[in-house]
Amino acid sequence: MISSIIKEDIEKEIMSEFSQYLESLNGKTILITGGNGFIPSYLVDTFIMNNKRLKNPSKLIIINKNPSNNFSRLSHILNDENVKFIVHDVGKPFNVPEKIDIIIHAASRANPTSFLADPIDTIDANVNGVRTLLEYAKDNPVEEFLFFSTNEIYGNPLPEFIPTPETYPGNVDCTEDRACYSESKRFAETLCMTFYRKYNVPVKILRILLAYGPGMRDDGKVITDFFNKAIKEKKISFKDKGDALRSFCYISDTARAIFKVMFEGKSGEAYNIGSDLENIPIKSLAAKIAKTLNNNTVIEFNLDVLPKKIYGANNRHPDITKIRNLGFKPKINMEEGLIRFKMHKEEEKNLIIEHLNEKSKRIKRDILDLVAKRGEGHIGGAFSIADMVISLYDLILTKEDKFILSKGHAWLPLYFLLKERGLNPKLSGHPEIDRENGIECTTGSLGHGLPMGVGMALAKKIKKEPGTIYVMISDGECQEGTVWESLLLASHYKLDNLKIILDHNNLQTLGKVEDILSLENLENKFKAFNCDVLNINGHSYSEILEAFQSKTSEKPLVIIAKTIKGKGVSFMENASGWHTMVPNQDELQKAYEELK
Is the separation of the CB atoms in 324 and 265 below 8 Å? Predict the structure, then answer.
């Protein structure tokens, strides 16, 4: 997904400066690992835009760990004939598919949340991936080999080495938990230099520092973390005094610096990639973000915390003299960069909501077709949950997560989403267990999905596996005792990796929930079982996504989603009869018209 801000960055800041150099990519084949990532995606988009003016376009081979979809950063080029996407974990053995001219190895777990969650995988991606590509480049000479390293290889520099030059050997504690990232990057650099010296592989090392801007993921980095807290809570809270110093670099400047090294840098050299325009305390960053959003965000500090004892200075400030000598100058200051990031986030949100809305209408039309053809199905419940299930599958679920639809009778949106992913679940009245095709367990007999979800979440806790278990239940299902027994267990074991989505449309097969067996105040009930609770509009994509992405503190989370049974078709909405009714031709035509 590309915004107008990203296009403007590339066209005005990158293409204009490197136009002549980019022409040399005519007919080249470029391999990029981690191409969907924040920084490499800017390079990919530059190559794609450059292709429009080349007689013989560049061929791009992009290796990503996870499949690309309609919400991936590079979704807009999924059907580009000059791009080949390969799904593979570069930490595992792999073969380079064809003759390559340029290698850009950018794949890595680059955020603390991710690399601390799976430190072994972090090491594998940083070390094994570069070794595989270096071996290829040794046997199949390439013109360029760019390795994405990090300024974190310097650790906490001694005060006399700030700003920090490339010649500084580093001050890293190899026993601390974050060392899985910095030390594996250091060793990867050693591999690069060894292959350069012994086999003349034309490696250039990019020590990238704190890039930010359009396309950043919500993955725990400080700028996105502060932005999200300021938007959602209007408060940015510090665990300390916020005195740590950092130098941030806007993404177009980062990309410009990378291209400067690619086209003018020397092989066998390391280059700091960053900005020296500002070196500011983190508390000043928070103030700048609050000013950018202009929403009365409050900034709170912990003034009582004792300073952490470290050997060296808690400062990240690169000496970019070496790349300045190539002619590079950072252009975008912090104020301008944050404004552009804000504009991108607003545009991206609108694009996502527009896409989800159109997809929901399309899937509902597919459901109508299927139910009319088969003469059976549960339209009302399916339409009630469609917006949430689509949001979950398109934007939230990772390969480590699992989803259980306990109210199995409403599963048709899930059926079509799985088919869209190339899976082939059996079409029946309720989902039947088929893990190869995305169905974790057989459901539909109400009250059984949550107990299974609790068991899965507990197993993950015991095994210390990453991932979240999502379970969708119905309000009528809460009349089952197994729901509450499961919550007792979930609370007892502090299953903060369990998220329960309650489809609260207040209708059952025979009428209103409150008339058949009133549940009274559900929020208070769930809180009494020691769960965190969020109340949302189950048809508001912004509220849905915010709830799915929210975190809890050692508790299961219950998302009470107020929904409308039969949502999207006026004569089906809030009508209990459409639990199992099949539309006639007139009704079908009216429903189609409303779902255009």
Answer: no
Helix %, strand %, coil % of the chain (to 5): 45, 15, 40
Please give the Cα distance from 199 to 179 (Å, whole number): 29
CA-CA distance, 204 to 206, in Å (whole number)? 7
List the Cα angle 341/256/199 in 5-degree steps.
Answer: 130
- DSSP character at residue 287: H
- Residue owning tokens 């729901």: 483
Q: What is the DSSP-derived secondary structure letter of residue 400?
A: T
Structure tokens at 15: 């293409």
CA distance 558 to 487: 10
Please determine, for residue 82, whether its predicted confidence score (pLDDT) is greater than 80.
yes
Average pLDDT over residues 45-65: 95
Return phi, psi of residue 442, to 5°. -75, 130
List 245's β-bridge partners, or say none.
281, 315
| Segment 103-128 mean pLDDT | 84
Residue 148's nearest CA partner among 222, 196, 211 is: 211
Q: Which residues contact 120 (CB under 8 A, 6 or more apart)?
A: 180
Rounded CA separation 358/365 (Å): 11
Strands 245-246 and 280-281, bridge-based pairing: antiparallel
Task: Tell me if 478 sits within 8 A of 470, measured CB to CB.
Answer: no
- The letter for the amino acid at 1 is M
SS3 63: strand
Q: What are the structure tokens assigned to 54, written together?
A: 């080349």
Angstrom distance (rounded) from CA 448 to CA 440? 13
Residue 434: phi and psi, rounded to 5, are: -165, 80
**pLDDT reported for residue 118:** 82
Rounded Cα distance between 220 and 338, Å, is 17
β-strands 532-537, 557-562 pairing? parallel
SS3 category, 559: strand
DSSP state, residue 23: G
Q: Which CB contacts under 8 angstroms, 24+ apart, belong to 507-513?
A: 507/380, 507/476, 507/565, 507/574, 507/576, 507/579, 508/476, 508/576, 508/579, 509/476, 509/576, 509/579, 509/580, 510/576, 511/576, 512/576, 513/475, 513/476, 513/479
pLDDT in tens, 307-323: 777 778 889 999 999 99
Alpha-carbon distances of 247 from 15, 207, 281, 551, rounded to whole Å: 25, 13, 9, 28
List helix spans (H) across 146-276.
179-199, 222-232, 251-264
CA angle 405, 549, 236 (to 5 degrees): 160
Q: In the predicted model, is pLDDT for residue 112 greater than 90?
A: no
pLDDT tens for 567-585 read 999 999 999 889 889 999 9
Phi, psi of 146 (to 5 degrees): -100, 125
